[in-house]
Input
Amino acid sequence: MSSYVAKRAVQACALLLFVSLVGYAIMSLAPGGPLAVYLHNPQVTPEKIDLLRHQLGLDRPWYLRYAAWLGGLVRGHWGYSYYTGRPVLEMIAERLPATFTLMLSAFILALVLSFPLGVLAATHKYSWGDNLLSLGAFFVWAMPTFWFGLMLQMTLAVRWHLLPVAGIHDLDNNSARDLLRHLAMPALVLGIGSIASWSRYLRSGMLEVLSQDYVRTAYAKGLPARRVVRRHVLRNSLLPIVTIMGLDLHVLFSGAVITESIFGWPGMGRLFLAALNNRDYPLQMAGLMVSAALLIVGNLLADLAYAVLDPRIRYQ
Output
């Protein structure tokens, strides 16, 4: 197992290098740039723009700038924001706890709700409950995330005054209870897509296992239905959903960009969205690398979970 993990780590580094190269090239060759906002400002002369371009190193070829950026990344220096002038790593460290809290809450919420819903749908196939859950899952997949977030704000916060509209804390209250009240709606908006997806994959996997001979044999022996589902069906149905859960680490991070913007959540999503609007290359590359790293790590964790769930799988 250790040799497999080491091999995957080497592959992950090579893949991250390729992603960074392609991403930096596309970003640098795209029309516009960090200084485009100054082009239509009559108070900023072309000489000042040229001076600023030279100070930021934008007058150099993109591959030389990429080499300098990559060298700094290896040394733990992610560059400085073009917009604020602050170190990128410092800005990420300030926003990381808020984003991690939101992602973890959405993941736990999806985990807690999707499994009972998936088991219920599989054990009551084609019942009114199964049909209702299927309809709800299809509705969630077709529903725009920002629309759902706005509807929650209008109903739960504006009309019924049950939850705060936005933010992470009230100005005069930093308690854990206040954090949970502010976290409820963003976590639900971020996690509802995973709830729909995971429950459907679990239902599909359980239906396939329920038709196997060993399951019918377990029922024929007189084992209780709950025990058959828990010990024989559920565990053997987890492989497909484990893959989806690993991939959803990246999806949760990407979805945080929209969710944090709707609810004013001070996390990395809002930071990287501002970087896109401002053409802040160092921050853009940081967001790309974090997102790619989450995708690669999620895949690795899913592969390792395979060996835990299925004893037949051995990694060399």
Q: What stands out?
A: The chain has two domains: 2-74, 90-309. Residues 2-74 form one domain.
